[in-house]
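Components:
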Amino acid sequence: MSPRSTRSTSTGKPDIRTVASLARVSIATVSRTINGSSAVSDKLSKRVWQAIEQLNYFPNTHARSLVSGRSRILGIIVENITNPFFPELIASFEEIAVAHGYELLVSSGNIQSAAQIETIVRRMLERKVEGVAVLTFGSEESVLDQLVNHGIPLVLAEFEVNNPRVSTILIDYASGIREAVEHLVNLGHRKIAYLAGPHTLHSAETRLHCFESSTAVCGLRIRKEWIVDADHTLKGGEAGMQRLLGLKERPTAVICSNDMTAIGVLHAAHQARLAVPEELSVIGLDDIAFTEFTLPPLTTIGLSRHALARAAFDALRVQVEALNEPGEHMPNQRRFEVTTTLIARESTAPPKA
Amino acid sequence: MSPRSTRSTSTGKPDIRTVASLARVSIATVSRTINGSSAVSDKLSKRVWQAIEQLNYFPNTHARSLVSGRSRILGIIVENITNPFFPELIASFEEIAVAHGYELLVSSGNIQSAAQIETIVRRMLERKVEGVAVLTFGSEESVLDQLVNHGIPLVLAEFEVNNPRVSTILIDYASGIREAVEHLVNLGHRKIAYLAGPHTLHSAETRLHCFESSTAVCGLRIRKEWIVDADHTLKGGEAGMQRLLGLKERPTAVICSNDMTAIGVLHAAHQARLAVPEELSVIGLDDIAFTEFTLPPLTTIGLSRHALARAAFDALRVQVEALNEPGEHMPNQRRFEVTTTLIARESTAPPKA
DNA sequence: ATGAAAGCGCTAACAT
DNA sequence: ATGTTAGCGCTTTCAT
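Structure:
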């Protein structure tokens, strides 16, 4: 009558015990069968699977996590879900993780205050994530510390930390950005501006450096007013372009730290009745889906979210599995590369004579 | 020496037992204190909290879920994370849920095959979500069945099901769409086209019906070629507009089932050298962030993701809590309303004489 | 108001 | 190869 006594009854959800008794084996055998561990004889294994099917049984992940110490949950922290780059990145990561039997704990809210970071870390810790991909491209050192102190493997983008549990994914921005600069130079541009991202983002700083060295290699003289701060948002791009518009010596082309910025630039140029690409060439970075549909379609530097997600997952997996196979050493922090490449569309053209 | 014996040692993460012994109380008292249940004397409570702080303790959610039967996880299924409407919706939902102590299990992948739905449902079931917000705006009846059979509360958008565990959020598309039609009529338009969404989406069907009744009320005669199928994607909008362009009797304005479609339309119009809004007025629906930055900025029908997220969360919470307070009856399926309203920007103007 | 103890559903020794 | 059993860390009766 009491709930406790219904254990072997047909009421409620099937138990590992329900399966065991239906298959006429011990619960250990059921567990082994499910986890594919130690050889279970074909005969019993078959009986077990059959019982599982028949009962529509699936294990209780909480019980499993509790006893095994493995949650099979991975955390992912992104910067700003408002930038379409990130949702696509999450979707890719999710697909890969789920295919490998991991669940995802996503933190998509805009991270601004330290308190918010605190909350996120807490959520991750409470749910016992086995690893976290920090794809904010920023310098959330405080996140790292807390998580690392708890021994949780991390993978970061563009930021190297001297800790065996932290892997870094290096993105080869240099090639894409060099291609972009060369593309512009070949078109005849000499006066190229750059709308930078937040200085707090490692990736934004890297992008900026790549721009500077690429233009240097091409022998371009970039006036410092042509390098203006933006913040990777639409409005930031618009404001940045407006600053450029106010300059005495105007650039004929502008490369943006990301696509959101570039879309803002397109908007500002249009308001100023400056024709793109005839009077101004614009290049973005990320290749978000919208870039094909801007007016004109945006020339941009492609960065594969799928490659990035893959690299992040693989890096995490290596660490997580090493942690669970005590025999193996922790692999040294690994670096994965993902590359970038120019995608020429219609926002670039020779400068007006 | 063995891991088991380290329990009361300072090694490793603090236990409820560690807290109990530090505070010189029983583990039951620690549990009660944390859960704010049954009165614990101020004196002990203080000691417990102090120990918790000192040890930086937090409870193991898996153990908690296992024994209490409550996971404090809510599922959310969205249609297509590529449409910026959804990430913003997720972010809002996450913020609200986390503020109420729930974790989120997001399914962001594009749902296409039945197998994918199967996987999602399985993930939700395995992690023992307490409720699921199905914001696909679609007709995933199969999802519903499985989840409902397991007694999990659901909240759907735009689709009513006769089941006490399923709530519906009704969105008042009628007012926004009526405003849009009237706006166009006031501008002098009589020939208004409509780019519809997938017929499998309840919300898309509702939007279409609202368009039809609004134009009827205004005494407009809408040729059936002006109502063309699209699919809520950028490319779909582009293709739909191209069809409209091929018509002998062309419309002077087009209302789109969502903003993605409208952005596609803008693109197609530009390619056809049709000036917006001078030669064609365009209206979208959703008010995603990009609409302020399209060329020209898009007039659209605003639908608050925050209101929607709020309604979805509240509906779920009512159900979930009723389930955990055996005294109460299950409330009847509740209906929450969220409204829509026209946001006039620059993609609409009087038709050319 | 507080504590002792049972047991949530499972995995992993340890036996056999 | 299979079964028995001791917990994983917590909540929740049930005593006191």
